[in-house]
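Worked example 2:
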Amino acid sequence: MQFFSNFSKVQAIAVPMLLYGGLTMDNIKFNSEFIEFIKAAKTPFHAVDHIQTVLESNRFIRLFESVPWDIKEGRYYVTRGDSSIIAFTIGKADPIDTGFRMVCAHTDSPCLKVKPNSEIINNNCLQIAVEMYGGFPFASWFDKELSLAGIVIYSSDDKKIKKTLIDFHKPIGFIPSIAIHLERNINKDKVINPQDELIPIISNISDENKTDLKKLIIEHLNEKIPSIKINSILAHELNFYDANPPSLLGINNDFIASPRIDNLISCYASFKSLIKTKMDSNSIMFFADNEEIGSLTRTGAKGNFFTSVLSRILKTQEEFAQTIEKSMMLSIDCAHGLNPNYKSKTDSNHIPLLNKGIVIKSNSSFRYASNFETIGVFKNICEDINIPVQYFVMRNDMESGSTIGSSIASSLGIRTIDIGIPILGMHSIRELCGSKDGFYLFQLLKHYYELDKIPFDLAFM
């Protein structure tokens, strides 16, 4: 009797409790913390700021591009432009012998970005002129409570130029759609004009209530940093965002509905797994900005940030070449899941399903960097820890998307695979992912970071 009693206790410890249709307690914790990250990461600047805080609390040392580096065994990170970040760990083994386990993702998402001269007074409404950042369905931004966040450069009363993050937190804007009574063809052939119809309303204007955006920003910053008197706003990069918080939904909490899942789920799983990786791993994590607009910026993946950091870690061209040849890059970006209302938009033999695992993205023109070698090695890594894998290949009568994977693979000569979790509503103001898939990605990345070597020395038989 005593034997069976002890056995039950062991089983209770060894087998995680299953809740909500098969989610473990660890999975539930991951989802809860991911939702909190999304709430904090309103813009790429806020995402990087949050990641910095987490890295520093886990013994990562901050480096600056403007000063010399003395790299030895340890954990490090460096930022550029406040919206891109690289973190890396150096173990006891020489990276020339082991290579690096590399991961890349992007911090930006499609949004409405505020124009420099933004105030529009339209009858008694104060509106804010915006630009379209990235590609997205315009209609998804109608009839939502919107708030505003970003980064501001200002001059203060001590004659210094400073910068700070800003987030209004509360809803301050709204883009009303046109009523069906006024546009009867709205469900047939309505075309949205983004110049005239995607303009948020933020206030009523009256003789007693005259304001503008810069005045609102100064008032907000004076509340945030009351010790500094702000003289003027010199520049800003602000964007509107959905003020409604992320949520779990579905009868068994099957899904997460949220803004910016693409691509913050990839960032979250990547840095969360890196901080939990054993100290002697040789690993690098690169989060770039501006992927949604082509990456051709100082903070984008086609800039020199990543190669500059690598060249400072690996001192000579010989070290660089040897290490890259033994390394692997996982380019992680969300994949198109099967939308049950639009099944004809998916290749019938490549149907990524939510909550069914990580998606390998493949394209014969290499819009994605995956090839036979990286796919084979990656699938073997997944099989080691029983992570389910799916495929995405675009239909032949549709144009494939792309990621930062191919540009990094071609510039560095590093073996790269494009992967991601499947989502629905990609680039909409709110997207939907499975509540299991992010945790699958986290588990995979932790295992990947801790590999002693990547098995690329495959023998022909």
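Confidence is low (pLDDT under 50) at residues 1-18. The first strand starts at residue 18 and ends at 19.
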